[in-house]
Structure formats: C-alpha cells, structure tokens
Amino acid sequence: MRRITGKTKDETLIELQGPRESQITDESSGNGVNSLSETTPLPGHAETDKLHSNKDTVFFRDGVRRIDFVLSYVDDKDGEKKQERRREFEANLEKAGLELETEDKSDSKDQKTYFLKIHAPWDVLATYADVLKIKVPFKESDIPQGAPLEWLSHPFRLPGHITHPQKDYFTYPFDKGKTDFFLINDKDTFFPPSTRNRIVFYILARCPYYKEGRTDKEKTGIKRLLSNGTYTAAFPLHDCRYWKKARNAKCESERFNLYEHWARFLCFYKEQPLNLIRKYYGEKIGIYFAWLGFYTEMLFFAAVMGLICFTYGVLSYDDNISSKEICNATIGGTIVMCPLCDKKCPFWRLNSTCLSSWQSHLFDNEGTVFFAIFMGIWVTLFLEFWKRRQARLEYEWDLVDFEEEQQQLQIRPEFEIRCTNRRLNKITQEMEPYLPITSKCARYSLSAATVLFWISLIVACIIGVIAYRLAVYAAFASIIKDPLRKIQVVGRFITPQLATSVTASCINFVIIMILNFFYEKVAVWITDMEIPKTHLEYENRLTMKIFLFQFVNYYSSCFYVAFFKGKFVGYPGKYSYMFGQLSKLRNEECDPGGCLIELTTQLVIVMAGKQLWGNIQEALLPLMRNWWNSRRGRHNPENHYSRWEQDHVLLNFSQLGLFYEYLEMVVQFGFITLFVASFPLAPLLALFNNILEIRVDAWKFTTQFRRPVASKARNIGAWHEILNAVAILSVVTNAFIMAFTSDMIPRMVYLYAYSPDGSMNGYIDKSLSIYNITQIPKINMPEDRWFDNSTGTCRYRDYRYPPGHKREYTHTMHFWHILAAKMAFIIIMEHVVFVVKFFVAWMIPDVPSDVKARIKRERYLIQEYLHNYEVEQLKLQLSASFITEPLSEMSLSMDKHEVLSECL
Predict the structure, then answer these.
(1) What is the DSSP string of 409-425?
(2) 229 and 276 both lie in a single domain
(3) Residue 383: its pLDDT value, please?
(4) Is-contact 67 117, C-beta < 8 A?
(5) Among 203, 59, 181, which Cα is nearest to 128's?
(6) Which of 149, 441, 782, 834 has the fewest CB atoms within 10 Å distance of its CB?
C-alpha cells in the first residue's frame, strides 16, 4: 500500500511501502511500463478490442484509465545518457504514484518517436488537490440564479446542450481527510481533465531524475529534461479532433464544441462560452478571453460615439468657412505663402492646400472636443465595470480566496540552479537559494543600461525618420516647380505634404516591426540575466520591459507629430534647423490646416498596419508551421493517427503565450485612448479588429496549439496597472492635442474676441503673418524665384507684427491670447475629466452587492457545515470507541464526558 505525507504546502514527500503490484519497470529500456498494457484487457469491457484498433482515444489501452499527460522522446547519439535520465525520472514518477504506459516507436507513424502516457489515480489526485488547495463542491447552492433582464441577451446566447450549464455549488478547498464531506459521486470524473493535467504537471515540474540518496537538486523537473533534449515534448491531450466528436461516449468532446460554436467566425455575434473555456483551458486563459470580450463590448459604445463625431464633421462640411476661404480663388488663390524649405521649395499659393483643409475638418471640428472628453470618461467606465465583471468571475470560478502566494512561493528552477548561495527562510525555516545584493545590483544595472540603449536606438531611428521627412519634402518640392501642379499617382492627385507623411509613416512602421523582433529577444535575455525568483516575478518584469519598449516604439512618432512638429519652426529670416544651419534641414512646418491631419495619417497607418500584420502572423504562421510539421512522415489520413500523435505535431503553447496576446491589445488600447482626439474612427477600427481577434485566437487555441496546462489566475495581473496608467496619460495627451495640435482654440479665440461680425469670415487672413520678400536671406530664397505678387510679401502661419511696425516680427497680443486660452483649456479639460473620472470610480463599487452577499453567505455556510461535519465525525468516533471498548460510566474520563456533552 502507498503512503503519501506532506511536509509543507509546496513540497510533498511521497514514499512507497512495499512493491507496486500493478506496475513493473523495464530496466533494459529505462521506461516505466504498466503491466496491464502487456496483458489481456480487463474483463467486463466489451469495447476494448475496438479501442485497441482505434488509437484516437484519451485512455490507456485498457479503455478505463484516462491519459492525463503525454511525454515524447526519440533515440539519438546521446541515447545512453538520456536513457539513464528517463529511467530515473520515470522510476521517481512511479514512486510518486503516477501510472505509466509506453507506446513504442514502431507503433508511431514516423518510426522514431516514443510516447509515454501518464495517468494519475485517485490517491495522487486527492493528495495534490489537498496540497494545491483546489476548491471542490460540498453543497448545492441555495442562492437564486439569473438576472432580471436575462431575456434581452437570449439571441446572443449559445444553446444549453453546448454550454452544459451546471448547478451552482458551494465550494471549499479539498481535504483528503474529509472526502465524505464533499459531493463525490464518481471518483473518475470528480476532478475535470484541466485539473488533472494541472496536478500532473505540478508533479512533473518537481520530480527529480537523480538516483535515490543523491542530492543533485538541479536535476529536477520536466522543464530541464525538455531543455536538454531528454524529452522532446510534454503536453496534455485534447479530448478529440476539433472537426469531429469523440467516438468514446466517456469523452466530453469539448474541443469540438469550442470549435463549432466559438472559434468559427460566423459565431462572432454570439457570446463566448466562458465557463466551457475555463473548464477546458483553465482560469488563466478563461480570464483573458473574458477581458478581451468585455473590452470589445465596451469598444462598441466608443465606436458609435466616434462615428457620430465623424458624421457631424461630414454633415458640417459645407459650413466650414475656413476651408471655403482657402479654396476661394479670390482669397486663398491670391495669397502667396513663404517657402517651406530652403532652396528647393518655391513660393506657393494657399489654395493649393484646399483638399487637405477639407480633410482636416472631418476630424478637427467642434464634436472632437466632446469626443475627447467622452473618451476620458469611457476609459474610467471601462476599467471600473471590468473590476465588477472580474469580481463576478472570481466568485463564479472559485477564485475569491485564491492568493498568488502559491505562485510567489514556487521558486523557478532556473533560480535554484544559478543561485548557489543558501540562507534560512524565516517563514518556512528551510534553507533556500538567494541572490547576493552585489550580484543583484550588477545585474540590474546592466539590465537598465540595456533598456536605455534600446530606447535611445528607437529615438535615433525616429530622428532618422524626421530627417527623411525633411529631405523627401525638399525632393518633392523640387519636382513641383509650379505650386499649382500636383503629382498624379494611380489616377489620384497627392501633394508633397501627403506623400511625405504617408511614405514616412510606412518607413516608420517597418522600423517598428524590425525593432520589435530584436527587442523581444533582448528583453527575454536581460530578464533571464536578472534571475527572477518566481514565475510571477519573471512575468511582471518582462511585462514592464517590453511594454516600455513598445510604448516608445509605437507612440514616439505620433508624439512627434502631435507635440513637436511645427512648434519650433521660427519665421522667415530666422528659421530653426534640426542639426544647426549647416545641416540645411529646416524644421518642419504644419500645414495651414494644422498638423492634426498628419497625426491622423500617422495613427491610421501604424495602427491599421500593426493590426493587419498581427492578424496575418497569428493566422498564417501557426498554420504554415503545423503543415510543415505534419507533412514529414505522414502518408495516411488524419484519423489513422493516434490522439497523441495528432497533438504532437501541433505548436506548443509557451508560458508567455498569453503575454503577447495581452501586449497586442494593450498597445491597441493606447492608440484609441492616447491619440483618439485626432481620429475618432480609431475605436471603430479597433472594434472590427477585436471581433476578428477573438475568433482568430479561439481558432488558434482549438486547432493549432497543443492543449496548454491549466493554470489559475484571478485577474489580468500587471496589465491592469498599465491600463490605469495609460488611461490617466490619455487625458493629458488628448487635452494637449486639442490645445496645440488642433486648430480649434485659435478659431474659438478669433470667433469670440477678434471677429468683426461674430462669424469665421476673415479668420484665414488673421491667422497668417506677413513677411517682406526682399528681407529673405539668400540661403532661404528658392532657386526658382517665381511669385506673382504685386505687394512683394509672402505669408506664413504665425501671429507676428508685419514689416514696418515698431515691433516688427515680434508676437502680437493675439498670439498671447491664444496661448492663454490653450493653457486654460488644458487645465479646465483635465480637471473636469479627472473629477468626473474619480467621481465615477467612487460611485461604482468594485464588487457588485449581490456578489458580496453571495460571498458572505458561502463563507457562513462553510463554517456552519464544517462545524456540523466535525461534530458528526466526533460523535461517530466516540460511539465507535464505546462499542469496541465498553467502559462503565465511572471509568469514563472527565475529558470524554466534557467532549461528549459539548458535541451533544
């Protein structure tokens, strides 16, 4: 018989008393082989022969024991050394109570791969469920279910025979010593497959592969065996093929249901089967899809409001007096503008920017201010309502009392191996590895220097793109000698400004993708170099590094266009240069319609390009890799291969798989919040992308990846704090965009303070200053000195006194009024939005009241039922002692009398 005792919460010592009767070990091959696999099938199973002939099953050869995990390996030139490791590892797995069964390479289609199937019997599952504090039902819930307006969502719900709604139960952490306290109807199905594979992986990750009596603690865990090539893969099995239900009635066919009713794009309007996702993949993946679905739902409201704002811009198209003046031949056609660059750029007429001024009005109008304020409040509502949704999921998925301390106490194997120093843990009173402070400081310093170097590299690339913009604009300007001519491209006309903005944005996007490829590898390297102690610490550090890099990489070009372009230009005769006057690269000027349309172009290209490239990567790359893996050695239809072979050729879902999914969405979140004032349709683009993203991710999980090991998570982790930081920053950036990038404030100041008739008539003339052409230095004068101007002056965008004034070319009071209005607008908008944000956050509780009541009710009932259970158990023990050892009333001790009276 087997005895399993636990020393601590995170370390279980398993001993065997006597030889195992059900298993033998093949010492010659180093494989643990179950004796039942080599004998006749168990009696009473009529379908055993059928199961033998068809390997598309998730059970051992006996058709009874479920395969909870599969390890694969091949023989190679280092076979003896690896065989010794496998022999010791598998022997230790058997000592831990796991049951093994091996598929010989001759039975595999490639004739090279061995498959080791692992089954966890009830005793092992019960022991480690106790260790891991897995919650299981002990009583059916008596709290009413259902929402008052549930019928409204009925058209979007999946049918009951797909979701398999189950009764709600009160749950409590499993205790092996109180099995009769829990509702155990069938031990084979009491723990779902996701829980079973989680328990088995817990054992695999801590099982040593050294001989008994040795202390080579670094020789521990399946991860090291995978890294050194002893095993080629380790994975739990999918329950069936995704396009066909399992033949065995015992198998749930949940993968098939997920594919048919979740992963297919035609189900985009249906709700996600979150409970089924959680049951099949675990809480960590379930919480990701819950967050992604909730984020997409909230995007719908932002998209509708952005579409309304854009529609307002279209409907007010004919009321745009400023654009009419620019396009008017008698107004804009007679205004000669100063050159936008030295030598190559000619004088040009204002009406040449007619098209861009109309385009700018679509996004730069009165509705944009309202939309910027709305998005500041929307972000708060999104985060607050997500907290409530998350709290409800925590209760429904038994995560209320789940603490990440379990993950925090689980030391990474890499930390144990690389840290040779030991010290006493004051909590556990055990010796544990630690990293000396000197080594830690050195590693952190090198890590910080590396991060700063790569951020500096991004800034250098952005400067290079800016230099390209300046150079290419001069090149386009030299081609267009006549300012009324344009370049014809594919039947459409574009201006040099538009050509410069589009090509620079495309180049910037390519640079972003290249830098991302390299930095992801660098970030993993420097995080490994820091040697984080736990997996949770490792993920948080890697998250902060990569997001910081992505933030600078994706948003720096938008920050340049929004807050720097056109702000440090100077004026004719005293222009500012990027690298000094010798560089001949004069700082860029904004279009007369403002820089907002260029920011819109930059945002659309980078955001849309990233989403398109991301979807191509997520859909095509896994498909191509799996096709390449499956084509080798396969000449038969798919149903001729065993379930473990079908899963073996799929891609492995790494521990950081969800990390990149979150990162993609958080970067998108930054685009639709930080710069949404420049492009109100950004939430609409994000909504369309996310509808596709959910189904693409679902398709990947169900068809292209092996089944990941189930793991718990009660929230989205460090990403929530990142979203909070982006939300706060978005209020500031949108306020500055409306003040300094948009032309809204100058128009308002003119309308209410300088307009002679209370309208926008004359605004264009008032917003352009005058410069005497004869005063333009030779270095700034165009090579082609064409200008049709009887006054001998040119105009430029600024508020300065004209030539001949006693304060010639200095800023007018109009400039200072506008600056004061901009600062006032920033202060007012930020304070209004922040006050509303904090008020909304205060008004909306993080946990719904009904969830609070359910949690309190459940805790109360747990205490009550535990108390009653202990009393009943004590009664039974005392009754048994009276029967087996009859004692007279006088011989009973006072202690027993007191205990019995208390119980009764």
Answers:
(1) HSB-HHHHHH---EEE-
(2) no
(3) 93
(4) yes
(5) 203
(6) 149
Could you tell me if 551 and 599 lie in one domain?
yes
Q: Cα separation of 642 and 619, whole Å?
A: 26
Task: Give me the chain's average pLDDT, please.
Answer: 79
208: left (phi over 0), alpha (psi -120 to 50) or beta: beta
Q: Which residue has the tokens 């598998």?
A: 90
Q: Are strands 113-119 and 2-6 parallel, antiparallel or unpaired?
A: unpaired
Nearest CA among 516, 517, 542 for reference residue 529: 542
223 and 281 assigned to the same domain: no
More confident of the two residues 49 and 622: 622
- Helix (H), strand (E) at residue 473: helix 437-479
Same domain, 189 and 289: no
Burial of 37 (C-beta count, 10 Å sphere; 0-12/13-18/19+): middle
* Helix/strand/coil for 575: strand
Claim to verify: residue 232 and residue 304 sit in the same structural domain? no
Q: Is residue 786 part of a domain?
A: no
Closest CA to 256 of 232, 274, 276: 276
CA 738 distance to own-chain centroid: 30
State which of 744, 768, 794 marks the end of a domain.
744
β strands within 285-399, DSSP E? 336-337, 348-349
Least confident interval from 81-95, 323-337, 766-780, 885-899 = 885-899
Mean pLDDT, rounded, for 216-239: 84
Tell me how far apart the alpha carbons of residues 220 and 89 are, in angstroms, rounded to a whole number.
9
| Same domain as 292, residue 196 | no
Within a domain: residue 576? yes
Rg of the chain in Å (alpha carbons) = 35
Could you tell me if residue 772 is inside a domain? Answer: no
Q: Give the whole-angstrom CA distance, residue 702 versus residue 673.
A: 32
What digits encode the pLDDT tens for the residues 822-851? 999 999 998 988 898 888 888 888 888 888
Q: What does DSSP assign to residue 565?
A: T
* pLDDT digit string, tens, across residues 332-390: 888 888 888 787 777 888 888 887 788 888 888 888 888 988 998 999 999 999 999 99
Q: 275 and 233, same structural domain?
A: no
Q: Looking at this protein, which amino acid is placed at residue 190?
A: F
| Lowest pLDDT segment from 390-399, 486-495, 718-727 | 486-495
For the stretch 404-432, pLDDT in tens is 545 445 677 677 667 777 777 676 666 77
Does the structure show a pLDDT above 80 at 163? no
Domain enclosing residue 395, as ranges? 271-744
Number of domains in the chain: 3
Residues 545 and 423 in one domain: yes
Q: pTM for the whole thing? A: 0.83
In a domain, 159, yes or no: no
Gap between the Cα atoms of 42 and 61, Å rounded:
10
